[in-house]
């Protein structure tokens, strides 16, 4: 694999100046900012990610105020009490997207958040304290203990809340393949570990957050 210096110079050539490059790169939230996000906002964002999957984002976003209403502001202690009959009634509510599998995921993910909060004090503390040097481990935790959080849903959720992560988009995977790090979309634990190792090395060389390295890497492909 190439070192960070090559990646930096490639992106610098693309954008023309350090200022122009920096303007295109995201900034993750600090640990304190992640801790300050309430559990209901984490649940709302998690549910938003689940409903966005496979659907037009603008359609889901336009209906989200109604989702906030029917799910009690996504307060986990209230949402977790929603049983099958309640969810069936929501299937008749034309203000929201009536997808039973996705609706069922909300109380299940509320339970995960409550379980984590009981152990860690809050879901925000759990997210803030997870080391980015093992961010794929957090993806795995969310996929295992959450509902409908497989595939790219976990890293996309983390990016939405501001937790530093890379996301294996098509362009980023193509760049990793070009670097000889992996040979396909990383789904196995071995391939994910190889990707994590590469990002840890680039981060060590640059001091940049994973989300910036992820986007810089994507810029090296098809642009």
From TrEMBL:
Name the record gives this protein: DNA-3-methyladenine glycosylase I
UniProt superkingdom: Bacteria
Gene3D superfamilies, sorted: Hypothetical protein, domain 2
């Amino acid at each position: 694999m190439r070192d960070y210096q090559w990646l930096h110079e490639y992106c610098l050539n693309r954008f023309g100046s350090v200022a122009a490059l920096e303007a295109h790169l995201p900034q993750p939230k600090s640990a304190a900012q992640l801790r300050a996000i309430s559990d209901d906002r984490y649940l709302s964002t998690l549910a938003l990610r689940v409903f966005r999957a496979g659907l037009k984002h603008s359609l889901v976003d336009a209906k989200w105020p109604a989702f906030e209403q029917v799910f009690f502001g996504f307060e986990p202690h209230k949402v977790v009490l929603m049983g099958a009959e309640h969810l069936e009634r929501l299937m008749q509510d034309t203000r929201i997207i009536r997808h039973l599998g996705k609706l069922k995921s909300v109380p299940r993910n509320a339970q995960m958040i409550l379980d984590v909060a009981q152990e860690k004090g809050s879901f925000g503390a759990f997210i803030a304290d997870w080391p980015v040097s093992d961010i794929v481990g957090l993806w795995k935790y969310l996929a295992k203990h959450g509902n409908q959080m497989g595939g790219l849903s976990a890293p996309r959720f983390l990016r939405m809340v501001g937790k530093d992560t890379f996301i294996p988009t098509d362009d980023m995977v193509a760049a990793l393949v070009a670097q000889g790090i992996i040979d396909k979309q990383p789904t196995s634990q071995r391939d994910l570990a190889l990707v994590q190792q590469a990002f840890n090395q680039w981060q060590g060389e640059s001091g940049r957050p994973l989300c910036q390295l992820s986007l810089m890497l994507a810029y090296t492909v098809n642009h």
